[in-house]
Amino acid sequence: MNIAETPLIRPIFHCVVSTDSPDELGAALTTIAESDPTLDHKRNDRNVCEFMIFGMGELHLEVIRHRLVHEYGLSFVMTKEVAASLLEPWVSLQIDFPEEFLKAVEAELNRREWELGTSYGRADTPGRWFFEGSMSAKNSLGVIGILRQLTENKGSYTMDVCEHRVQVDWE
After folding, report:
1. How far apart are CA 45 and CA 86, in angstroms?
2. pTM of the model
């Protein structure tokens, strides 16, 4: 079996790591993750000295901790590992709408912390735009109704559940 064909297993445990050397820790985690597709990490936007590390279990995270200390010589504080039982549904959203509503649609989607995948002016239908992206299901509540109002019901909208992500709450 080709490694590209191997289905990846999503990490199910996480911990928070605080350090005085965030750039070195980030580089080390990126290097380790290149050879370990079951490891993931995310830097805290509110506190640049913190990272959330996602792994397959307590032993996996302990091995990562050991490598960071012994192979990379890093010092840090690691919280106790927690099972990632909070999976949040995400939806994909496709919107086709008249160009005159572009700024209003963009503002509404950005307010809902949407992740834009594709956007372009429609060459086959001048004066229309197409957006495709995703957002958490909780942020999507009521979005179709709001988009209908913003575009004066002149658009088309499609929304589907596309994946589940580990809910990360830094507060």
Report:
1. 20
2. 0.52
